[in-house]
Fold this protein.
Amino acid sequence: MLQFRSLLVSTMCAVGVSLPSALVAQDAAAAYSVRGIHFATPFISPAVAAQNATTVRLPLGYDLEFDAAVRAQNYLPELLLVRDSIVRRWADRSEAPIRVWIQSARDLPGWDGVFPEMAREALEAWSGVGLPIRFAVVADSAEAELTVLWTDRLGQDESGRTVWWSTSKGWITRARVTLSTHASDGLPQTPKALRAVALHELGHALGLGHTADARNIMAPWVEVSELSDADRNTATMLYQMPVGRVAASVADAQTDGSRLQRREKGGRSANP
């Protein structure tokens, strides 16, 4: 029997998201890019301004209204709604660790010898969440299921990029993380900033998407340097769910403390 799988390519902006475009391909994949990273900036970015919002604007004409306390604990509703209630993640790898290869790029402009260690620290941080996932760094890239690569620069406003491949059922089977030695403003990355970008991109490699709340490492414009409780909780909840479609439609993907509404043409929300 012939089976068709889709290539899903998603690009996300500072606060919102764009819909994935579907193409026929051998595997299902998704590409994510973090738009930039900065710490203690003297101005309020759109992402920071959105952190206290209780309504998140979503594609397909929907708004998701949160109880503020619930939103601070997890952003799974955002992830499910953007993906039309489809879960993609790794299978249980607590017994057989995901094999990771971290490239060395000593001759790359902007290279800092501590960058590979920052990537390892990011792996350790996600390992500490308690997911049914373990990582094992390998010396041979041919053995790796997750590769961490380096580049001088990515596209405009990009500091990192992740692509993963999954089966038609939704199991992620391999992933590629690319980290830039230069920040989106063109300046060399600091180890602290590089580690934060690595945390973000490895979150994508695990199956997480973006959240509009800038208090979390998975915000498109990274404002923090550590995993938040919401990052940990969302990943934990994701890995407790079955893969594939978990609800009949976008409108069904609701959790306690959130309410989905369809926007009117004027931009206001109305009951779906």
Remarks:
- Residues 170 and 255 are 21 Å apart (CA to CA).
- Confidence is low (pLDDT under 50) at residues 1-29, 35-53, 248-257, 267-272.
- The chain has one domain: 5-53+75-245.
- The first strand starts at residue 5 and ends at 9.
